[in-house]
Structure prediction request, 201 residues.
Amino acid sequence: MRGTAMLGLVALAVFALPLGAQTIDKANIDEDALARRVMAETVVGVGAPPNDLCVNAIPIAVPSLTAGTTIGAGDDAPGFCGTTANSPSVWYTVVGTGNTITVTTCEDFGGGADYDTKASVYCDNCGFTCVGGNDDSCPSSALHSTFSFCSAPSTTYDVMVHGFGGQSGNFDLNVFDDGNPCMPTVQCTPIPVELQSIGIQ
Prediction:
């Protein structure tokens, strides 16, 4: 994410940076030659999203539409799961319904994104048992992602939204249940009964 604030002949370029003292460029602009003289200026950057790590995943409902971003996030990917993982990522959790659940950033299915996304699903409470994932699978876009999986009732699934080739950006993650019962092929640990009773996942 970047922007430019114009003050007379001085432009201040702002970038998304990790928290802490960082530098950005203040350019002295010659309007005729468009020449820039760069000076350093200290600013405080943009921090990582709160769900940057799997252990801080944000619970979301089924169904739900969630706006999110991977800008400023680290690469918390545990490894290949349906697709390679080597880009900034953020995490969400959904609880299985016993039906097929779809997670998508495709506009065709109610999602969206301003960059090339990927989606991967794991289980076992950040134990990273791979359920599966997808890079590009949208009827109208070769850049966005859809993954459907058979969910087990009362089982928590970790949903990682990430990108292709180091990309990051903003997205709308749509999650929905098709209403059709199914039999999971990946065995995951269900939420303990004593934790379900007090609403802890």
